[in-house]
Specification:
Distance between the termini: 66 Å
Number of helices: 5
Number of strands: 11
Shape: elongated
Strand order of the largest sheet: 3-2-1-4-5-6-7-8-11-9-10
Order of helices and strands: EHEEHEHEEHEEEEEH
Largest sheet: 11 strands, mixed
Strand content: 25-35%
């Protein structure tokens, strides 16, 4: 897979290193000469250019990329790169970094963004995920289709503890993608039984999140009669 990364700062280089270790072809683009540090990621291709200019993206052969990652520290630049990648070059997958959470609403399909990653939001979500049991935590927003990656740790008294995955009537537009049980990562099948303490990861439409949280909540004892 060929991946172009706009922004060769610490974030861009870190992403490039991970992708290269996984066997992908990576091109790093940055307009600042001081950011071109070939010795830090020698296996990557490097291009000194402005990723907001069509001539630069032509030189980068963006049409050959499977993924473009807009990873600069400037939200305006990331939006322009995303829009050009999607509309001018037809890149199948565009991932954009959101630096200011106030700008997150802009990072959507209209700007060519398939996945928006807000570092402050992700960090706060991971903190919430580490300390909360029984509460739905939004980890990642997928702009295309208005879906989110969400997590919930099943509390001990959850109504669904002990229930087979295949017997659960999950909300519409909701998919259970992973069960993390201790040190194990399970691909769910219909015969898996949900256990208290399971970390459940879903891809779910935002409109279904409240319904999903209610489904996974603790048992409520019936109110005593008069």
């Amino acid at each position: 897979m060929r991946v172009a990364i706009a922004g060769a700062g610490a974030v861009g280089r870190s992403i490039a290193g991970e992708l290269l270790e996984n066997g992908h072809e990576v091109l790093l683009i940055d307009k600042a000469p001081t950011a071109i540090s070939v010795e830090r990621v020698p296996q990557a291709e490097w291009l000194l250019a402005d990723a907001c200019e069509i001539t630069s993206l032509d030189e980068a052969a963006l049409q050959r990329c499977n993924v473009v990652i807009a990873a600069t520290g400037d939200d305006k630049v990331n939006l322009v790169v995303s829009l050009l990648a999607k509309t001018e070059y037809g890149v199948p997958r565009v991932v954009a970094r959101v630096n200011n959470p106030k700008n997150e609403w802009l990072f959507n399909e209209a700007w060519g963004v398939d996945v928006a990653v807000s570092t402050p939001r992700l960090m706060s979500a991971l903190v919430e995920e580490a300390v909360s049991v029984g509460d739905l935590v939004r980890l990642l927003r997928f702009s295309h289709g208005d879906a989110n990656l969400v997590e919930l740790t099943l509390p001990p008294e959850a109504a669904l503890a002990g229930t087979r995955v295949g017997d659960v009537e999950w909300p519409e537009d909701t998919t259970l993608v992973t069960i993390i049980r201790g040190t194990r990562v399970l691909t769910p099948n219909k015969d898996d039984v949900l256990e208290a303490g399971d970390e459940l990861l879903f891809v779910a439409a935002q409109a279904r999140e409240e319904q999903l949280e209610d489904l996974l909540s603790v048992r409520r004892e019936p109110s005593p009669g008069p």
